[in-house]
Amino acid sequence: MLKRVKRIQGKRIEVFIDTEKWNVNSYLKELEHAIEKNKRLGVIYEIHKKQGEDKIKSLMVDMVFDNFFKATEYFISHIQFDLLHIYVKIQSIGGPKAFFDQIISRENFAFFTVSPIALLQEIYVKYFKIPNDLIIQLSHELAPIEKVINHEFVHFLDINKVKEGSKIFERYKKIGKFDKWFNTLSQPFDFLAQLRVEGLAKFVENKNEPSIEYNLAMIKFGKEWIVKGDLNYVDRYQSGMYMWYFISLSYLLKTNKSKFDEMRAYFGKDDFLFFAEGLNNILTKDIRKINLQNLSENFIMEILKEGLKWSHLHFLKEYESACYILKIPKDQILMTVSDYNRIKKIQYNEWLSEVEKKGFKISRLSIYFQRLFSFIRKS
Ligand SMILES: [Zn+2]
Fold it and tell me: How far, in Å, is the centroid of ligand 1 from the Cα of 110?
């Protein structure tokens, strides 16, 4: 276990890193396998052999320490305690990402797992000048580690709402009793909570991007399924990020109209429209994707400060009212409060009819079912 300590604005930050779970042999075996298919990847293998595992490991460790201290420093105003412990395990988790453990974390104890691949990719590019196209062949995705860690760090800042969500989820689990149907009952809540939590992390993770690539076709498609009551066709990360973006934009319109009027949507290299010309016009263009100018980093941080206090339901209300304020066309409003309530009712009725199909006669007047329905309505 390695430890480094830093004082940031009077707060003591202790970061611990555990590299013992990182199995070098299994990684090298994967690499050998990849080289069989693509000889060019042999360059990476050579680097490992030449530099030696200790050197590569120490670069990884430095990268983790640097990025966690950087994230802590950046988000320090959101940290309530004078002492923060961050525990990081470097371990393969399937896919080149990181993971925040919400179950064991507390407000001043944060536990994360970072995948070695995510770190190695960046080390290859940064220190050994391996071209990006080769790195992508290794794992199909190249996510800058700073963004990956910022994303997980936002989940940690959001821990109160994340834990509240887990409690509601547990309640559903208890109510469901019959495992097979539990999924149906909790699905709408789970869906909305993920839009809020993952969307927020993705929105903040992209705070330095000059624009957001907005996929009109994807939202239209997702909306059509939501209207039918099916939630399986919506990307919760991407869609959630758009929801936070529009919420923020509506706050910009309310607080700084002249700044809002300067914001632009880009259709091509030199082709753009100002938001002042009407988002209604921009978002009804017959085009799959457009780039929407991003808000400033400071503004995104202000929204984060507020957004951390919002429940999933409050988030949905904010989103719906933002859509009306911004005059977003109907087929681009992913979900309204009434969509959400309708889907919960559909799922509840489906569950009841499943139970009855199994031969259990259910009285909708029973106290249990009245309580169940009122819990579902409120969550
Ligand atoms: Zn996430």
Answer: 15
Distance from the alpha carbon of residue 191 to the mean position of ligand 1, in angstroms:
13
Residues 251 and 205 reside in one and the same domain: yes
* pLDDT tens digit sequence for 42-92: 888 888 888 888 898 899 999 999 999 999 999 999 998 999 999 999 988
| Ligand 1 center from residue 99 Cα (angstroms) | 7
The answer on pLDDT for 179 being more than 60 is no
Give the CA diameter of the chain: 74
Domain count, the chain: 2
Looking at the fold, whether 8 and 126 belong to one and the same domain comes out as yes
Rounded to the nearest angstrom, the distance between the alpha carbon of 336 and the centre of ligand 1 is 23
192 CA to centre of ligand 1 in angstroms: 14
Please check whether residues 94 and 9 belong to one and the same domain: yes
The residues, ordered by sequence, that sit 6+ positions from 185 with a Cβ below 8 Å of its Cβ are: 172, 175, 176, 347, 348, 351, 376
Q: Residues 6 or more apart from 286 whose CB is under 8 A from it?
A: none
